Amino acid sequence: MLSYRHAFHAGNHADVLKHMVLCLLLRHLNKKDKPYAVLDTHAGAGMYALNQAYAQKNSEYMSGIGKILHHRELRDLVPEYYQVIDSINTSKSGINFYPGSPLFSCALSRESERIYLCELHRSEFETVYKNFKRDRRVSINHTDGFEAMKSMLPLNPKRGLCLIDPSYELKSDYTQVLKALKTGLSRFPTGIFAIWYPVLGKLKDHSKNLTFDIKRTNAPLLQVELNIDGQSDDFGMNGSGMLIVNYPYGLYEELEQIMGPLFTALKDGKGSARLRILNEKD
Ligand code: SAM
């Protein structure tokens, strides 16, 4: 059942959007002196070699980081994102490695923070364990990330972010996300919840239903979506988005600056970009 390997997709346009948003959320959490925690429910391997077979199969990173690696304006707007990428690409031969969400969280947080990683796929778990076991701030769990929204919340410290980034290889992931979010909000009402979703071809797409269902929780909600091409009729991923529950003040304005240049750099056809507040803060 669990055949998904993020290495095929590492650094693609969806990763770029997700990780830039993650960097902005960490920026907001870092503004206060108070420690915080990050729960990454679907951690993946934590780092990916782009010159190896999985990533080379479709070279998806060329649709993402390959297009924006040297983008001046984006480098100025989201320096944290590039700081992490540059730190693992020290050779002059372009980009060889792409960071996963655990590496962004670890690299951009402070000594006082706690990072909780969950990964269900055995070989991905072994890799992420190997990559982060020496970091004393990190707890690495071979467990179901949806379940963790019950068993690990509220986070310790009680301030922080849950990144929910399933592969959606199972249709049930959509209902699981909603259920996990509701549990998460009941156990950790002040937490930020950042949910990634794909925008697929019309026959397979569930992004609108997911958005509708999450909006109905009535929690403060911001949506950012980047479709690099027009929606196809059948399959394929045309874009992706993030739904951010309990979004921090100022995030909308920061994304407003980024989305224009990011869309222009990544679009591949008609495409569209969207940024909107779906539920206002009180
Ligand atoms: N968050 C990662 C990043 O941005 O670098 C990518 C994660 S990838 C989209 C989804 C990961 O979730 C895969 O590594 C997959 O093995 C794992 N996975 C699938 N179902 C899971 C579950 N129920 N709980 C935890 N991990 C799961």
UniProtKB/TrEMBL annotation:
A single GO cellular-component term on record: cytosol
UniProt-listed Enzyme Commission number(s): 2.1.1.266
Example of a GO biological process term: rRNA base methylation
Keyword Hydrolase: no
Residues at the catalytic site: 165
Record GO terms (molecular function): 23S rRNA (adenine(2030)-N(6))-methyltransferase activity; RNA binding
SUPFAM superfamilies according to UniProt: S-adenosyl-L-methionine-dependent methyltransferases (SSF53335)
Residues the record lists as binding S-adenosyl-L-methionine: 19, 42, 101, 119, 144-145, 165
Site (Interaction with substrate rRNA): 4
Top-level EC class: transferase
Swiss-Prot/TrEMBL catalytic activity: adenosine(2030) in 23S rRNA + S-adenosyl-L-methionine = N(6)-methyladenosine(2030) in 23S rRNA + S-adenosyl-L-homocysteine + H(+)
Stored Gene3D superfamilies: Vaccinia Virus protein VP39
Record keywords, A-Z: Methyltransferase, RNA-binding, rRNA processing, S-adenosyl-L-methionine, Transferase
Keyword RNA-binding: yes
Cross-referenced InterPro entries: RlmJ, SAM-dependent_MTases_sf
Any Pfam family: RsmJ
SUBUNIT field: Monomer.
Family the entry assigns: Belongs to the RlmJ family.
Annotated function: Specifically methylates the adenine in position 2030 of 23S rRNA.
Name the UniProt record assigns to this protein: Ribosomal RNA large subunit methyltransferase J
Organism in which the protein naturally occurs: Anaerobiospirillum thomasii
